[in-house]
Specification:
Length: 408
């Protein structure tokens, strides 16, 4: 009873915050299109099992279809589990957002976060249509998840967190040469196929934290293709970065392998990238990386240490500091400003919080509005901007209220 009451409170708070804000566009919301059930956002989905002992399955998530065995083209006979937006018409889709999981392989949580941000964006901006954007949240599982019950004998599996930096799968069976980045290639191809999605313009690979690490390193190794202009990356608060130069802002002469993959480009690249590295070298990889549409985002309050290995510490001591240092480095090697196809958003007051980042004005804009339009919000070189969190604080307060009510 109390739980039900608190859900109503959150739903009302969510509506109130979404509707009462002073965004001009908020007054011109289309009422004719189906919108999701807001109460679906009030409680985040619960994991079945845990990351350490293995997951037993996938919880149902509002507005998502659970696909347990999405077939892979790069590994015929193997599959991955995912959530994908339910109840949408492929012909109506103009944008897709692929959101990798966090370190905990928790794709249910990230679907929920992204869908909630999309809902808020659709309520806020006239040009964002909830029904025109498809969200996909894949997971790359561990062997222990198969034992615990989340996958079957076709599920592609990766040891530990090796999926985060593009390494090869460890099974099932002989599927030991499939990079987690081959999987992303497949997922992009799925959406970029004009026969399936005739009106789809852009796909955004949108990662927070571990998901941002995954996406950033993929951007460096993905081959350039005719599809480049249709793909964008949104990389928020990565725990560490693939550094593009060999030097570091906080050098540590006793720390080994500071510039080895996944921290750098001297050596240790995964099989997915060795051909490119051997042929084009560091400069070729960096050029390829910077040719992609990349939207970086850091919360200015993200002062957590993230990755505490010595290699990561040479990049900065907190997520935010690594961001500042990375942006300086990338400007240094790009003639003084960030590359033409990159943008940088500093999201004021947000910490290591995927919900705060996706629901900030900058987050909603990059994710759901003009993901590949550049130089629109500029200051010094047209590519950096500071943003206030939009409804995040109010929603945060509502969520806190609900948590408080739930424990009563
Ligand atoms: C998800 O919902 C379906 C249909 O209601 C139900 O059959 C299934 O057991 C649910 N799965 C979980 C993991 O709760
Ligand atoms: C797809 O778009 C058409 C035309 O705007 C609309 O009538 C229909 O409801 C949409 N379908 C879905 C599932 O959003
Ligand atoms: C996977 O399991 C199915 C039945 O659950 C079985 O028919 C099939 O042979 C198995 N495949 C492999 C490669 O073990
Ligand atoms: C995964 O771990 C197993 C057991 O530790 C090991 O034999 C295998 O080589 C590892 N595979 C990869 C791709 O790292
Ligand atoms: C994996 O190895 C098989 C057998 O050698 C090969 O046919 C396949 O192309 C490889 N896959 C990838 C993604 O490298
Ligand atoms: C430098 O690296 C060494 C070796 O890992 C480590 O013990 C030390 O704490 C590092 N120093 C700093 C300032 O991070
Ligand atoms: C930026 O992206 C566009 C579209 O993909 C591409 O044509 C252009 O070459 C890219 N710019 C750089 C500097 O690579
Ligand atoms: C998005 O792009 C359209 C078309 O170029 C433009 O009119 C609009 O102002 C852009 N919106 C934002 C938020 O950049």
């Amino acid at each position: 009873m109390r739980l039900a009451a608190s859900l109503v409170v959150l739903s009302l708070a969510f509506y109130a915050s979404a509707r009462s804000h002073h965004f001009a566009a908020a007054h011109h919301i289309r009422r004719d299109m189906p919108m999701p059930d807001v109460s679906g956002y009030s409680v985040q989905p619960n994991s079945l099992g845990d990351a350490d002992n293995g997951y037993a399955g996938f919880p149902n998530v509002s507005n998502a279809q659970t696909i347990l065995n999405f077939p892979l083209k790069s590994a015929e006979g193997a599959t991955i589990p995912m959530y994908i937006s339910a109840g949408k018409d492929n012909k109506n889709i103009t944008r897709a957002v692929i959101v990798p999981p966090g370190k905990l392989r928790d794709n249910w949580y990230y679907f929920w976060v992204m869908d909630k941000a999309l809902y808020q964006a659709a309520e806020t901006y006239e040009d964002v249509d909830y029904n025109a954007i498809s969200i996909m949240a894949p997971a790359l599982l561990n062997p222990k998840d198969i034992t615990a019950g989340a996958g079957d004998n076709t599920t592609l599996i990766f040891n530990g967190t090796t999926w985060m930096s593009g390494h090869y799968s460890s099974g099932p069976g002989s599927f030991t040469n499939i990079s987690s980045y081959d999987v992303v290639d497949d997922l992009l191809d799925y959406y970029l196929d004009k026969d399936e999605f005739p009106n789809l313009d852009k796909v955004v690979i949108a990662g927070h934290s571990a998901g941002a690490q995954f996406g950033q390193r993929y951007a460096a190794l993905r081959k350039s293709s005719k599809h480049n202009a249709r793909i964008a990356f949104w990389l928020a608060n990565p725990g560490s970065l693939l550094w593009l130069t060999a030097d570091r802002p906080l050098p540590n002469s006793t720390c080994e392998n500071v510039d080895r993959w996944k921290y750098g480009l001297t050596d240790g690249l995964p099989g997915y990238g060795t051909y490119a590295y051997n042929h084009y070298g560091r400069d070729g990889i960096v050029e390829r990386y910077n040719s992609h549409n990349i939207h970086y985002a850091w919360g200015t309050a993200d002062d957590g240490p993230g990755d505490t290995r010595c290699q990561a510490k040479t990049q900065g001591l907190t997520h935010y500091e690594r961001g500042l240092n990375f942006v300086n480095m990338i400007k240094d090697i790009s003639g003084g400003s960030v590359p033409d196809n990159a943008t940088v958003d500093w999201v004021e007051g947000v910490s290591h919080d995927g919900e705060g980042m996706t629901r900030s004005e900058a987050g909603m804009t990059r994710l759901f509005r003009n993901a590949t339009y550049q130089r629109r919000f500029g200051n010094d070189n047209g590519a950096s901007a500071s943003w206030e969190p939009a409804h995040g604080l109010l929603l945060g307060a509502a969520a806190a209220l609900v948590s408080a009510l739930c424990v009563l």
